[in-house]
Amino acid sequence: MSLKVAIIGATGYTGIELARLLLRHPKVEITAVTSERSAGEAFSKIFPAFQGRLDLTLEALDPSTIAKKAELVFLGLPHHEAMGAAKAFRDLGLKVIDLSADFRLRDAATYEAWYGQHSAQALLEETVYGLPELYRDSIVKADLIANPGCYPTSCILGLAPLLREKKIALDTIHCDSKSGTSGAGRSAKTELLFCEVNESFKAYGVGKHRHTPEIEQELSVLAEEKVVITFTPHLVPMDRGILSTIYAKATGAMDSKSLHSLYEKFYAKEPFVRIRPLGVFPATHEVRMSNYCDIGVHFDERTERVIVVSAIDNLTKGASGQAIQNMNLRMGFEETLGLL
Ligand SMILES: NC(=O)c1ccc[n+]([C@@H]2O[C@H](COP(=O)([O-])OP(=O)(O)OC[C@H]3O[C@@H](n4cnc5c(N)ncnc54)[C@H](OP(=O)(O)O)[C@@H]3O)[C@@H](O)[C@H]2O)c1
After folding, report:
1. pTM for this model (two decimals)
2. Which residues have CB under 6 Å of ligand 1?
3. Which regions of the chain carry the CATH code 3.40.50.720?
4. Residues in a beta bridge with 250
5. Which of 150, 155, 175, 293 is catalytic?
6. Which long-range contacts (CB under 8 A, 24 or more apart) does 86-92 make?
7. 151 with 211: CB under 8 angstroms?
8. 3-148+318-331 maps to which CATH number?
9. How far is the C-alpha of 81 from the C-alpha of 74, rounded, in Å?
């Protein structure tokens, strides 16, 4: 029997990506899709690419109605909206995979400092951070999974081997990340209009982007001490993809070959992390619509800095693909099922 799932916030970019991937998943049936603005319309009327594949009628978010049709929900809602929905679904006994930031930060005070009030703090206790490469053993038992952010996925996977093996000075980490515009969601914003974005390239959220504490939280766990980073995101004129270029000073003797072996060994058994050959670096189009995080590494002997280039698709490994990877783990399905 198929697992019945609902996509909450199905008309957003992560919701559409969930629909695209889940329709090909052999053990899942999508039984409900929600939207506030388009409730009552067929999903395939709003998105004709899904005609004949997902013709369900979009419904307004009513947890008790959805609980009658689904066992697991994906929340593709804006932060602050997700926390109330997560609580309602957990109270009704459903498994929840939340794609928003609402449960990613373990410390409620840190959440409130960066995002504002948190009204479901009690649930933070039971939440597992859904980065399979680091938390697989906990994800298999979790009923509330906080799916990581897109930039954090690229930066944490890019840095994990160096921190675990204590190879870099913790106060020298710089993450320079670039994202396509789907990273900002599907709602209309002037700064995301074609004429504002096309043929242009800019930094934003400099020194204050909300993904900073999430990246620092996970790097600190890996390093077993507090890590503070410089993180600068950029907006590039492409629809999807994230490329993070990461710099840090080595603490001891290093060369590109040993650095490369460290990464190959660390990720040897990971189905969705690929290390490029020495001297080769990934591009966003090489991971487009796939669940891979591709990584290239180099040791710059002149500056004694490690340079790591990490590429993901923000909507797949950075959001909906990773959410399905988490669902697979939680439900005991093969981890790679339905994913490329
Ligand atoms: N985009 C990415 O690359 C990415 C990556 C990782 C994580 N995330 C996170 O994932 C979440 C979804 O992102 P997204 O890019 O898919 O956002 P989005 O394109 O803006 O979509 C938001 C969805 O939530 C629905 N919605 C908005 N306000 C609502 C409310 N008050 N009640 C019920 N439904 C509501 C919208 O429905 P209607 O407008 O149709 O009513 C839409 O379906 C966000 O928290 C985001 O930070 C996004």
Report:
1. 0.98
2. 9-15, 35-38, 61, 76-79, 81, 99-101, 149-150, 182-183, 185-187, 314-315, 318-319
3. 3-148+318-331
4. 168
5. 150
6. 86/120, 86/123, 86/144, 87/119, 87/120, 87/123, 88/63, 89/63, 90/123, 90/126, 90/143, 90/144, 92/63, 92/64, 92/67
7. yes
8. 3.40.50.720
9. 13
Longest dimension (CA), the chain: 63
CATH fold of 150-314: Dihydrodipicolinate Reductase; domain 2 (3.30.360)
Of 184, 282, 272, 274, the C-alpha closest to 234 is 184
Give me the amino acid identity at 199. E
Residue to probe by mutation, ligand 1, list 73, 74, 77, most atoms within 8 Å of CB = 77
Res 234: pLDDT:
98
Q: Which residue has the tokens 């204590």?
A: 166
Query: DSSP 3-state assignment of 93?
Result: coil
Buried b (16+ CB within 10 A) or exposed e, 243-272: bbbbbbebeeebebeebbebbbebbeebeb
Block means of pLDDT (10 residues each) for the chain, length 340 residues?
97 98 98 98 98 98 98 98 98 98 98 98 98 98 98 99 98 98 96 96 97 98 98 98 98 97 98 98 98 98 98 98 98 97
**What is the rounded CA–CA span in Å between residue 37 and residue 41?**
9
Cα 95 vs. chain centroid, distance in angstroms? Answer: 18
DSSP code, position 171:
G
C-beta neighbour count of 38 within 10 angstroms: 19
pLDDT in tens, 257-269: 999 999 999 999 9
What's the chain's Rg over C-alpha atoms? 20
pLDDT of residue 20: 98
For 74-105, the pLDDT digits (tens) are: 999 999 999 999 999 999 999 999 999 999 99
Mutation choice for ligand 1 from 36, 111, 314, 317, CB with most ligand atoms inside 8 A: 36
- Where are the domain boundaries for CATH 3.30.360.10 in the chain? 150-314
